[in-house]
Amino acid sequence: MELDYDLILEEDFDALCLDVKGGSGAWSMGSSTPVRYPAKLHARRVAAELAVDGGLVYLPGQPEKDLEDSDQPQLFRQRRYFFYLAGANFPDCHITYEIAADRLVLWIPYVEPRQLLWFGSKPSAARCAQLYDVDEVRYASQLPKFLRGRASTTTTMYVLHADQAPDLDGLGSSGSGSSRGGMRINHALLRPAMDRARVVKTDYEVAMIRRANAVSSAAHRTIAEHLLKAPSERDIEAMFQAVCTSRGARAQAYPIIAGAGSNASTLHYGANDQPLAGKQLIVLDAGCEWDCYASDITRTLPIAGAFSPRAAAVHAIVQRMQDECIAGVRPGAVFYELHLHAAAVALDGLLRLGILKGDRDEIARAGTVAAFFPHGLGHHVGLEVHDVAGGLPLIAAAAGASAPGLRLEEGKREMISPQALVAMGNKSLSAQDRERQRLRPNMIVTVEPGIYFCREYLEGYFLSDAAHARFLDADVLEGYYPVGGVRIEDCILVTPDGNENLTTAPKGDELLDVINRGRQGRKRV
Ligand code: GLY
Ligand code: MN
Ligand code: MN
Fold first, then answer.
1. What DSSP letter does each residue of 4-46 carry, written as one string?
2. pLDDT of amino acid 397
3. How far is 258 from 303, CA to CA, in rounded Å?
4. In angstroms, what is the span from residue 489 Cα to ligand 3's centroid?
5. Is 21 a residue whose pLDDT tops 90?
6. Ligand 1 atom nearest to 254, measured from its CA
7. pLDDT at 434
8. pLDDT category, 16, cuts 50, 70, 90?
9. Where is average pLDDT lowest: 241-255, 415-429, 443-457, 464-478?
10. Which residue spans of the chain are classified as CATH 3.90.230.10?
11. Torsion angle defined by CA atoms of residues 166, 169, 172 and 177, in that order, rounded to the nearest 10 degrees
């Protein structure tokens, strides 16, 4: 397919909400005031969460690395915990924060002229001081001496992982590997403290995630405009990437998911290489990063420009799940209760369609609706697309650590089995954990309900299990496999009195209008 770059580059991008202007230079937030990356604010937040009187926080950034057995560089991706305290998005940096003195120092590499000849420069110390709110910018070659000097006055060095403690010539070790030159190395406290700090975003971070959403939303709009001419999933992926790159967002927050037909029922489908012809729907789950901050957006588009009656019915259920759950996002809301609400809407909808059959309460007690809505309603978004959860996952803890089929990895999208759904409904969460799960202003979460018809999953675990099969109408279900799946996903900011949807990609009737305005033009080839 031929990409129409004029269409991609023009449009109404200037009208998008540009809270933070510019690329990787100095930013302004809705005014001409330059805004530096609020590294010091972040460091103070971490210190408050650490709740210690003194000590030194040390974090190395990502070093430059080649691919294995190659002289070609690995794609650079900055370490997120380092970035949170520094704002510097280039290799071979370090950050130190002396807690009692409230002193944040960014350590940057010196670029020799012969390296510069090949790879260009990195920001100078003076430029870094303009861009990042740190107390001082120094060359990393001076870091060992600095740390040696602090060893006599600082009792504890806080690091993220044991293997990130600096290996300093002459600093020595106590023999246990847990000290350097007299400083104790603590690798237990920093990560949980940083997770608690990161889970509530600063205004700067909100602006970044808003910007990532604006770029991704523009890309989703472009896809809708060109959908009727797009031959394959591959063209959708390429076009999405091209729009983001041309608008200054080169990195995607996660691999693009462009799944048509039955591929729409694979949650993290990634091949993106199948033709669209003859398929009903395409699920496009794609979001770029803006200077390390993620967006995460899904739209489900009718490939022919109009939904089939069955696809329309399923899409309407998912839209209702999403609308009602977004309306419930506010300070104090408990996220897993929103998940339970979404599951209840899905249950009622699938009963109406005749896919589920039998007594509603019995179906609810069996958790059978998890066959169709098998993942969590959402997750935090920030420096990671599945961002840190500040100590307690939004949904998993609700079901208890022992619920089968439930992964308890913090911040990740969770597999919700029928047992997990039932456990969640039984509210096995302790009062204390329930309290910790409440949403707070400046958290950003996705709300991303879905209904999927994954034949292998349904046949393997539900149609073959009498406990669930009696609630499923296999004949009715057969007619829904070609629908594949529907997911709708937006990034929602918790505000003091409710929420704000940061995602502006068209959906609902507007999405259908945008798709069908693309009718004037070339046909799919
Ligand atoms: N794009 C991955 C997710 O929605 O969680
Ligand atoms: Mn998501
Ligand atoms: Mn997503």
1. -HHHHHSTTGGGS--SB-SSSS-EEBSSS-EE-B-HHHHHHHH
2. 58
3. 12
4. 6
5. no
6. 1
7. 76
8. very low
9. 415-429
10. 202-520
11. 40
Looking at domain 202-520, does it have CATH number 3.20.20.70?
no
**What CA–CA distances, in Å, run from 206 to 43, 46, 218, 293?**
17, 18, 18, 9
8 Å CB contact between 150 and 183: yes
pLDDT band at 179 (very low <50, low <70, confident <90, very high): confident
- Long-range CB pairs of 410-414 (<8 Å, 24+ gap) are 410/195, 411/379, 411/380, 411/384, 411/386, 411/387, 412/379, 412/386, 413/267, 413/375, 413/376, 413/379, 413/386, 414/375, 414/376
- Answer yes or no: is pLDDT of 5 > 60: no
Q: Ligand 1, from 386, 394, 414, 445: best to mutate by most atoms within 8 Å of Cβ?
A: 386
Q: Please give the DSSP secondary-structure letter assigned to residue 186.
A: E
CA 253 – ligand 3 centroid, Å: 9
| pLDDT tens sequence across 245-280 | 999 999 999 999 999 999 999 999 999 999 999 999
Single out the residue of 327, 335, 445 nearest to residue 395, CA to CA: 335
Residue 286 CA: which ligand 1 atom is closest?
1
Fold of 39-197: Creatine Amidinohydrolase; Chain A, domain 1 (3.40.350)
Distance CA 490, CA 204 (A): 20
**Which stretches within 391-473 are classed as H helix?**
418-425, 431-436, 455-458, 466-469
Q: Where does the chain hold its CATH 3.40.350.10 domain(s)? A: 39-197
Ligand 1 pocket test, candidate residues 213, 267, 448, most atoms within 8 A of CB: 448
430 CA distance to ligand 1 middle (Å):
28
Which atom of ligand 1 lies at the shortest distance from residue 489's CA?
A: 4
Instruction: Mark the residues whose beta carbon lies below 5 A from ion ligand 3.
Output: 285, 296, 298, 489
